[in-house]
Amino acid sequence: MPSIFSRPTPFLAVTLVAATFAFSAPAVLSPSAPTATSAAPEEPAPITAAGDGPYVVANGPRWLAKRVGSNLRPILETVEPRGRIRVAPVGDVPAFTVKLRPLVGTPAADTLALAPHAKLLVLADTHGEYEIVHAFLRKQGVIDAKMKWAFGKGQLVVTGDMFDRGAHQLEILWLFYKLEAEARKAGGALHILIGNHEAMVLRGDLRYLHPRYPEAAAILGAADYAALFGGETILGEWLRSRPAVLKLGDLLLMHGGISPAIVDAKLGVADLNAGIRTALATSAAASKSLDGQTALIAGSSGPQWYRGYFGKGEQQPPAAEIDRSLSAFGVKRILVGHTPVEKVTALYGGKVIAVQVYPHRDETSGAPVLEGALREKGEWYRVGATGLREELAIAP
Q1: Smallest Cα–Cα separation from 84: which of 18, 144, 140?
Q2: Please, what is the average pLDDT of the chain?
Q3: Rg (CA), the chain
Q4: Residue 130: its H or E element
Q5: Which pLDDT does position 298 carry in this prediction?
Q6: What domains are there in the chain, each with its CATH number?
Q7: Which of 11, 35, 77, 185 yields a CA-CA distance of 20 to 30 A from 232?
């Protein structure tokens, strides 16, 4: 199958056309048990497809923005290449505008230098929990009150799984797309990695989508939700250009982990990302047609799915196996998401750092709960959406 990166990406003139939409976020409830004298708490209204979008198709001299109106009817608007779209507010999160860019055209770099004392923040699975992600980014100084990059020359890595489960994955994607350009302009960087849920959706495995998204696809006349992220769309092409594994200085970052099988196969970072891209060009229904190496990379022992660091007893790899992985990739540490942990945790003396604290709200206070791993001035910390900052116990 031909690569989506084989076609030219012309530089075109700019006219600004805004695509506007709005919807309401559900209330956060902390109900008490009903009694004989009190009515049961009212359930929040379900989040429908109303207000979803925009999905931008970059096909031809004028691009097309598709969204769902508040009346659950499709709205189609033209957008000039390098124009702007508007992403509506959600709850207390303000609206923001996004300047569109030409299609990427080539895969992003997967091996980059990073100074040992450079400021680095690593965030894992966000799963559509937009308001909680916003609270985390604000508290950690990544964005300002106007939703603009405020992290200066710092770098942010998101290890995948922006898709599925939550109701506001599209807002998260547009925010990261916007911040990537702003970070670059400020001398910093935002690195988006492809997790297993990105791979699932892009390949047509839609089992874990929030119900509003299949509804939106039907309203917009798409064959299915995956069709809204095809290779001709701004976000679909952008995501396909991102790596699944990133070697950043002396760190290796990915969604799942590096299994012994990957080390045995002597596969490097470029091999792993090439294999993921090959898999992304094959539907999930046709997975059996993948060649052996690609099936290994895209399967349960691959970097998007592996969970071995979290096994118990004999199921957990010995420390020597971790050392073998570090040596094979020429790094000091591996950082992963995918497998939920109660708090950001240093494993194997800090040779592996588990970052995936699932975004949610505290049952008692309603406070946002989401954590990341921060390296600042050579020291590692677990940091959170409410201002948590605690040094991680990591061997030198």
Answers
A1: 18
A2: 90
A3: 21
A4: helix 130-139
A5: 98
A6: 104-391 (3.60.21.10)
A7: 185
Helix, strand or coil for residue 3? coil
Asked if residues 85 and 95 have their Cβ atoms less than 8 Å apart, the reply is no
Residue 231, phi then psi, degrees to nearest 5: -65, -15
Of 68, 110, 71, 106, which is closest to residue 254 (Cα–Cα)? 110
- Beta strands of 80-139 (E only): which ranges? 84-87, 96-99, 111-112, 120-123
Q: List the chain residues with pLDDT less than 70.
A: 1-44, 314, 396
Query: At 357, which amino acid appears?
Result: V
Peptide bond into 116 cis (omega under 30): no
Angle (CA) 79-83-89 rounded to 5° is 85
Greatest alpha-carbon pair distance for the chain in Å reads: 69
3-class SS at 279?
helix
Q: Is the pTM of this model over 0.90?
A: no
Q: Please, what is the Cα angle at 227 between 301 and 57, to 5 degrees?
A: 120
Burial class (CB in 10 A: 0-12, 13-18, 19+), 242: buried
Opening angle at CA 244, ends 356 and 301, nearest 5? 75
Instruction: Summarize pLDDT for 194-212 with one digit per residue, the tens.
Output: 999 999 999 999 999 999 9
Rounded-to-integer distance, Cα 68 and Cα 55, Å: 10
> Which residue(s) pair with 360 in the sheet?
369
Q: Which of 23, 121, 143 is nearest to 72 (CA)?
A: 23
CB count in 10 Å sphere of residue 1: 6
DSSP per position, 160-223 = S--SSSSS-HHHHHHHHHHHHHHHHHHT-EEEE---HHHHHHHTT--TTS-THHHHHHHHTT-S
State how far the Cα of 290 lies from the Cα of 281, in Å rounded to an integer: 10
CB 183 within 8 A of CB 152: no
Amino acid at 380: W
